[in-house]
Every structure is written in C-alpha cells, then in structure tokens.
Amino acid sequence: MTLAPAEAAPRQDLAPLLPLLGPWLRTRRWYAAGPSPAGALTPVLVNVVREQAPALLHTVLRTQDGQLYQLLLGLRPDLPRRLAGAAIGQVPDGDRRGWTLYEATEDAALMGVLLRHLAQGTDGGLRLHRATRMPLPVGLVPRPLTADQSNSAVVYGDRLLLKIYRRPEPGTHLEVETLRALTEANCVRTPRLHGTLLGGPTGLVLGLMEDLLPAEGDGWQAAVRQVTDCVDGTCPTVPATGGFTAHARALGAAVAEVHTALADVFPRVLLTPHDIARQAAEMTERLDRAMREVPALARHRAPITRLYDDYARAGARGCPVLAQRVHGDLHLGQALPTPSGWRLIDFEGEPARPAAERAAPQPVLRDLAGMLRSFDYAAQAGLRALRARDPDDAPGPRLRRARRARAWALRNRRAFLAGYADAGGTDPHCHPLWLRAFEADKAVYEAVYEHRHRPDWLPIPLEAVHRLART
C-alpha cells in the first residue's frame, strides 16, 4: 500500500502546527527514534473532525525516516487547567494564532465528538468499519487510559475501548486480523472486536474498537502487589516464598485455551530443520546487534550462541517443532483478571519487530518464554518498591528479600507452565532447551529496550542473560 502526501488544502491548514509537533513527538514513549529529531514532517492524512472550538484534528504524519505517526490534536483559544498537562504549544500563526494545541485523547469532550463522528459511519476520511451490527452507544462518558504503552486508548463508559495505533503500518494489521478471527470463533478469553478504525482512500488501519473487559488493573499490577506483600513477609494468606501460584496456574490454562483457539482459526505449520536453523541464526544476529548497543551482553555471547546452536541441532535431528499464530508479546500486563477468569489483550506482537516477522507462525513456547520473563520482572519490581519505601534497610533483610523474590518468581513460573500443560497445551517441560533459547532471545530484546528507554531497569534482563548463559 502506497500512501501519498495529503492534499494541499489540509496540509496548508496543518502547516502552522508542524513546528510544534516535531519537538513534542520526541517526548512520546511511542516515538520510535528516541531522542533523535523527527526532522521534516509530511502530512499523509488530515481530517478536520470538528472545526469550531474546541476543534479536533486527526492526522497521520510521516517523518524523514519514513515512520508514520497518528495524532489526535485539540485546539482551544484558552486551555482549561485540567488539560494543562496535555498542552503541546501555542499556535504561532494562521487562523488560530494564539490558540493552544494539545493532545486530544485527554479531553473527554473531544473524545465524545470522535465517538459521535465514528457512529455516523462517514465514508472516506476517518471512519469505523464495523465488525458487529450493534449500534455504537454515543452517550457513553469517555476517559483516557493513562497506562504507559506504545499506543493510546480511550474508554467509553464501562462498555467500549478505542485503541489508537500511534505508529500505523500500511497493509493488514496483525491485531485486527487476530481479534476478528477470535471474535468470529467466540473465544471467551479475548475481547470482542466491534470495528476497525480506518483512514484515507486506501483504508490505512489506525485502531480498533473492542469490548472493555471488566478488570480492576492487570496481571502485572496484581503480581507486583503480591510480590511486595510476600517478599516483605506481610502477606497474610500465603508463605513468604509463595503467593499468586493459583493465579499463575489459571493464567497458564487461559493462555493454552487462546493458543488452541488460534490454532483452530489460523494455519499451523511444521518447521523444517532449515526453518529452525534460520531461527537460530536470526537469534544470533539479534544478539550481535544488541551487543553493539549493550556491550555488557558481550561476555555472554559464547554460551548464548551455543544455546541457539543446540536449538538448531535439535531441529536437525528431526525433533518436530509446530508453529502457529501466537500472541507475540505476552506478559503480565497483557493479561486481565476478570470475574470470569483471565483474559488476554493486545495481539500486536513486539512493536520493535517487523510486521511480517510478527505475523509469521511461531512456536507457542515463544509466548511462554515471554510470560516467564514477566514473572522475573514482577519479582524485581516488587523488590524495587520495597527499596524505595525503605532505602536504608540493613544488608541482612535486603538479602532475605532478594531470596524471597527469586523464590516467588521460580514458584510462579513453575505454576504457570504446569497450568498450561494441564490445559492441554504443549508440555513445556518436554522442551526445556527450546524454552531456554526463546527466553534468552527475549531477555536480549529486553536489554536493548531498557538501554534505550529505562536504563535503571537494564540489570533485570542482564541478570536473566547471565543465568541462562550458566544453565
């Protein structure tokens, strides 16, 4: 799909805003180039959803490196104090000179305007391609979700969630395709898809509308709370080295159910020895690239590449490896505890990987490895919370807490895998080598991410790489 620049008139309307948007983009978590300048911005799509104040503009911009970014922009002559944190800057010239440009997803009034616009079913421009016949309830009260994510989301009442892809990609969108198939298959472990947000004459996928799941927080928040209590020795119902295991086991069973549903609606393939050797070579290449950004990985290159080579040799010996559509970025933050059990969300895959790679069939053990890494992260996050609360604790208590955190992670990792196997999924205990290789690959990916975005978290994946290198 080729996207041409926006027509001249809309681009001219947007021109006074472009100098404000470049510096602001660099402050967004979803900006791919980190602190690097965005350079010249080219409008690809521009939609004036509402002209009068407060105005609502929708645009997709292309940066000099070819990356697309989707923005929802509000404009007001005077910005209310409640929206001060959403401000981008003052418009320097044009018809709206002196008005304040701001992030529109934080403005409930404009998000209500957007819902009514989508409910009208306008052809062309910004529109919602419906997946169900149920009308959109336009009277629902909007509120933004403030979680630190690579996309943005707006909740409408207690029923709908609008997910906005900040970095849209031309072509078929992996999450939309996956959720549509799971919705048609009546999968109870995933949200129901209501529609796809499209833009422009080519139908660029810009987001989706789905059920809002009835959850108070996510699995990550629940796990970290449990770690903090149990590692501190104050958990009232479970031993300090336990906790959460029943939830972890149930989560493993839920993941197995989703994998079964995905295998029913998407094709499965048997990887050949050549396919497995290629996967091992790609993991080695990712490690070598990561070492250039994170030199601390270099000391582990030899044992980690031997692990990847062992995976390739297992394939050469004829060990069958099935691949299928998977979640692709599975962790505790993508699992929601609801009254009817665990539900899985966000089927985009790892955002840093190319779209074609994310859509390709993968061994289910890749998802399991991602969740294992998440249990390790939750244990360390709980420790960090305790250290922040009590930074002057003595070495003895600090060591006991660290041991309890490691025991918590180990126990819950085991419970998760057992729940997965009990529910009929591939028994991960039968493939420890593959699981270790995929966990190492995930930890290397995490090391690059933390180096770029959260340097103080870098020791967590480095410790995992060190452990896997010695196993």
What's the topology here?
Elements: H1 8-14, H2 18-25, E1 42-50, E2 55-62, E3 68-76, E4 87-90, E5 100-103, H3 108-119, E6 127-130, E7 142-144, E8 152-156, E9 160-164, H4 174-184, E10 193-199, E11 204-211, H5 219-231, H6 245-265, E12 269-271, H7 273-293, H8 301-316, E13 321-323, E14 335-338, E15 341-344, H9 355-359, H10 365-389, H11 395-422, H12 432-453, H13 459-470
Antiparallel strand pairs: 1-2, 2-3, 3-5, 4-5, 6-10, 7-8, 8-9, 9-11, 10-11, 12-13, 14-15
Helix pairs in contact: 5-10, 6-11, 7-8, 7-12, 8-12, 8-13, 10-11, 10-12, 12-13
Plain-language structure description:
With 471 residues, this protein is of the alpha+beta class. Helix content is 43%, strand content 17%. The chain has 13 helices and 15 strands. The protein has helices at residues 8-14, 18-25, 108-119, 174-184, 219-231, 245-265, 273-293, 301-316, 355-359, 365-389, 395-422, 432-453, 459-470; strands at 42-50, 55-62, 68-76, 87-90, 100-103, 127-130, 142-144, 152-156, 160-164, 193-199, 204-211, 269-271, 321-323, 335-338, 341-344. The protein has a 6-stranded antiparallel beta sheet, sandwiched between helices. Strand 7 and strand 8 form a beta hairpin. Helix 7 (273-293) runs antiparallel to helix 8 (301-316), helix 7 (273-293) packs parallel to helix 12 (432-453) and helix 10 runs antiparallel to helix 11. The model has no long low-confidence stretch (mean pLDDT 91).
